[in-house]
Design brief:
By secondary structure, the protein is an all-beta fold. Helices cover 0% and strands 55% of the residues. It has no helices and 11 strands. A hairpin with a 4-residue loop joins strand 7 (67-72) and strand 8 (77-82). It is globular.
């Protein structure tokens, strides 16, 4: 069974920073690409950042230069460092991976940005 558990969400002021973590179990973590998605109320879930097994990253245009995704294979954990947060970054953030073609999601962690 694959489990993805996000943490690190909370209330942050606009312009501030927050680091999200996602701990994975039930997969051979080091070989799997990992991703962060987010979903704001009334909006579709969107890809925020992705990191491959070799560390290649890509980002949504809206977060480039502000967010950074990284992984620690020894800890089976992927991180999302979020800087210069804006009101439009407020959302529930979800961790995602695939195993044998099946998608897996965490339950999400909510980020609220106050102005």
């Amino acid at each position: 069974q694959v489990y993805l558990v996000e943490s690190g969400g909370g209330l942050v002021q606009a312009g501030g920073s927050r680091r999200l973590s996602c701990a994975a179990s039930g997969i051979n973590f080091k070989i799997h690409p990992m991703a962060w998605y987010r979903q704001a109320p009334g909006k579709q879930r969107e890809l925020v950042a992705r990191i491959t097994s070799d560390g290649t990253t890509n980002y949504a245009d809206s977060v480039k230069g502000r967010f950074s995704i990284s992984r620690n294979n020894a800890r089976n954990t992927v991180y999302l460092q979020m800087n210069s947060l804006r009101s439009e970054d407020a959302a529930t953030y979800y961790c995602h991976t695939n195993r044998t073609g099946d998608p897996y999601w965490g339950r999400g962690t909510q980020v609220t940005v106050s102005s």
